[in-house]
């Protein structure tokens, strides 16, 4: 079973739903080590994405849908996370091109390109207490699942579980990028909001695949 446009649009709808559902939690996390707007930023962005999703042509590819997310997040989300996630979705769209059906290897290419897009834009390294700390273990787990011969659902499940662990693992870290880096040791004990939201987005991808 491969994943096509129906999975992609379901992922996007579930992303919007989960961001809206966790808006307050993301605001609280960002209030602790940032400026308290992360939940609002992402909710505004994904609400705008939802409004445009029905305009996608019937023969749209997964890449077309990812590109719509990218351009909408870049134009509607103020704050660091808009351009960072926007670049992630733009690079992910480029990685899958006009392929209509994505197998495990294509999903790994998509996730890798997304992570690389965030790094290209924000120059964070693993352990800097950013959204990279959710994306990088997700990419590694997805690649390992493909190497083990797992199907697409299992690949995305592995990515989501690794992202959740990665987000939790930001709690003891000192931040070296973004607003939280101004806090020094005071960021210790708090989860990075961007890592948490990225883990929610990856869980939405797995849930959409599981059906
Ligand atoms: P802002 O900090 O501008 O208010 P948001 O609150 O929406 O933007 O997003 C903050 C999140 O962005 C952080 O929790 C972190 O995960 C992520 N972030 C910030 N700077 C970087 C960076 N250079 N690289 C990767 N992620 C970053
Ligand atoms: Mg913020
Ligand atoms: Mg802000």
From TrEMBL:
Annotated GO biological process: glycerol catabolic process
GO cellular component, one term: cytosol
Swiss-Prot/TrEMBL keywords: Kinase, Transferase
A GO molecular function held by the record: glycerone kinase activity
Domain of life of the source: Bacteria
Pfam name, any one: Dak2
Ranges of residues in domain DhaL: 6-207
PANTHER family registered for this protein in UniProt: TRIOKINASE/FMN CYCLASE (PTHR28629), TRIOKINASE_FMN CYCLASE (PTHR28629:SF4)
UniProt-recorded name of the protein: Dihydroxyacetone kinase subunit DhaL
Organism of origin: Herbiconiux oxytropis
Lineage: Bacteria, Bacillati, Actinomycetota, Actinomycetes, Micrococcales
């Amino acid at each position: 079973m491969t994943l096509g446009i129906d999975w992609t649009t379901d992922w996007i709808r579930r992303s919007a739903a989960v961001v809206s559902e966790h808006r307050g939690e993301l605001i609280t996390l960002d209030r602790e080590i940032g400026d308290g707007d992360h939940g609002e930023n992402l909710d505004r962005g994904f609400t705008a994405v939802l409004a445009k999703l029905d305009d996608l042509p019937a023969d749209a590819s997964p890449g077309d849908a990812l590109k719509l997310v990218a351009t909408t997040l870049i134009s509607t989300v103020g704050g660091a996370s808009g351009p960072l996630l926007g670049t992630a979705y733009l690079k992910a769209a480029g990685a899958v091109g006009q392929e209509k059906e994505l197998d495990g290897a294509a999903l790994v290419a998509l996730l890798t390109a997304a992570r690389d897009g965030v790094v290209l834009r924000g120059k964070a390294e693993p352990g800097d207490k950013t959204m990279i700390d959710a994306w990088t273990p997700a990419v590694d787990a997805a690649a390992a699942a493909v190497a083990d011969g797992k199907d697409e659902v299992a690949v995305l499940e592995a990515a989501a579980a690794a992202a959740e662990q990665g987000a939790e693992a930001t709690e003891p870290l000192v931040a070296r990028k973004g607003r939280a880096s101004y806090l020094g040791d005071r960021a210790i004990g708090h989860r990075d909001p961007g890592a948490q939201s990225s883990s929610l987005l990856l869980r939405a991808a797995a849930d959409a695949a599981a059906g």
